[in-house]
Amino acid sequence: MSATVDWLRTTTPGLLLLCGLSIAVLLIAIIRFKLEPFIALLLTGLGLALAAGLPVAKIVGTPLKAGESLLETGFGGILGHIAVIIGLGTVLGAILERSGGADVLTEKLLKVFGEKGAPVAMGLLGLIFGIPVFFDIGIFVLAPLVYVAAKRGGRSLVLYAMPMLAGLSMTHAFLPPHPGPVSLGGLLGVSLGWLIVMGFVCGIPGFIAAGIVWGGWIGKRVHVEVPEEFLVRKDDGDAPAVTPGADTEPGDNGSPAGGSGSIATAVPTTTVTKRPPSVALIGGIIAVPLILILGATFGSQLLIANSKPLQVLTFLGTPAVALLITVLIAFYVLGLRRGSSVQELSAITAESLRPVGMLLLVVGAGAFFGKVISATGIGTALAETMSAAGLPVIVLAYLISCGLRIAQGSATVAIVTTGGIVAPLVAGHDYSQVSLALIAMAIAAGSIILSHVNDGGFWIISKYFNLTVKQTLQTWTVLETVLSVVSFAVAALLFAVLS
Fold it and tell me: In 175-317, which residue ranges form alpha helices assigned H by DSSP?
């Protein structure tokens, strides 16, 4: 018995088996027994940590000091990054939508692309917005447009959400200024210019295959309605507009678990204003955080370190600050200036934030589960085994990145860790900048494969788009895998031709 336990805790096959069993238990608890994902993730994470032999002090800390425990750093690490962003993004989405802004933008898109082309429009929107903003911010800002398009088109929410998500995911994994690709530039010694070029060359085919082709196919087969819990207003005869973050746990048929309820209370049906704002005004408001974030990004490359202008740009371009400024602007130009009172705007804010609590708990628990898996050492053991296999460097880079992504859930962690492993392997081979950029793209492609229950993004998408765990696996998980495989195939083919 003791030998078996030691084998499970200290060998790569044993750790793989332990990790696989924990994920299977988690899926069964959520899908079969309908256990709330927050509770299931917390229980499974604690169970895996104990089974892997991690010290109790490392798992939960001590009665006097718990700040460095997996439980607190797992929750705190992700929530410290996204909690403020989720809150401000949700408020911004609510005020844009309640003012009629989401309807205006959706109408414009539908006029340009037509009803049949609306999913493609959502994909292009995700692709463009995803370049300067993080994946999660893009979801929070663009989700209301997806809801409105799905309501007006009368088709599945999946059909409109998947192309948008593919665009956001592609830019997050393959293009600077996102942290993963930028880190690869430093680790592999490749210029950001070549990373941008090869990011588009390898990522666009993946985006088309995953977002447009796969998204269109699966969107016709997995039907998910925009639920009543997402509605914040209804105009006479108009399609309802919506706000993200409804506090529901979808059931197998796309309805909330337990039948009819939502923790969120009913919301008023009045709008901030009956006069719809202009497309230019709404576009300008959406552009504010993008411009501020871009200013900080490019300022760090062009300005002198620690200079006063750079400090100002860095402060204003921090995502939380940029979104706060944008929310205040939206309050004024879409609310106060158009006849709303401070009390009405406060009511909108309170209504939109009520459902956010469960979303944050689920994402935090998912991050804790991923942290436990990482702490077991399975990711490191898998990477070391693969590096000794003697595979071509671009294939090796992809497989190591895939293994790390599947094991611990974070695309950025998979990219940075794989880059550190691969960098010594390419250092003495005199690869060209193009070849190094393609190796970087292989690492980026591996970092997004098979998003599942240990990925915080998995739970954000499940909650924001009213998907059950099973439906999220059928749609989002497959989309990420298609995006990964197609983009890697392009990178490998070019590497074979140009190297």
Answer: 179-188, 192-207, 215-219, 279-302, 308-317
Tokens read off for 337: 């200036």
DSSP 55-104: -HHHHH--SS--TTSHHHHHHHHHHHHHHHHHHHHHHHHHHHHHTTHHHH
Cross-strand pairs, 242: 231
Helices (H) and strands (E) in the chain, counts: 24, 2
Rounded to whole angstroms, the Cα distance separating 68 from 187 reads: 28
pLDDT at residue 269 in the model: 38
Nearest to 94 by CA among 230, 290, 227: 230
241 bridge partner residues: 233
- C-beta contacts of 100-103 below 8 A and 24+ residues apart: 100/241, 100/271, 100/273, 100/275, 100/276, 100/277, 101/276, 101/277, 101/281, 101/282, 101/285, 101/334, 102/144, 102/145, 102/147, 102/148, 102/241, 102/242, 103/148, 103/238, 103/239, 103/241, 103/276
Q: Average pLDDT, whole number, for the chain?
A: 81
Per-residue model confidence as pLDDT tens digits over 369-380: 878 877 888 766
Strand partners, 233: 241
Query: pTM of this prediction?
Result: 0.69
Structure tokens given for 5? 């336990």
Is the Cβ–Cβ distance between 469 and 31 less than 8 Å? yes
On the 0-12 / 13-18 / 19+ scale of CB atoms within 10 A, 388 is exposed
pLDDT at residue 451, as a whole number: 93
pLDDT in tens, 69-113: 999 888 887 787 678 887 887 788 778 777 877 667 667 777 888
Which of residues 382 and 90 earns the better pLDDT score? 90
Per-residue model confidence as pLDDT tens digits over 38-53: 898 899 989 999 999 9
Q: Classify the C-alpha dihedral 375-376-378-381 as positive or negative.
A: positive
Tokens standing for 8? 């499970």
Q: What is the DSSP letter of 29?
A: I
User: Please, are residues 369 and 46 in contact by the beta-carbon 8 Å criterion?
Assistant: no
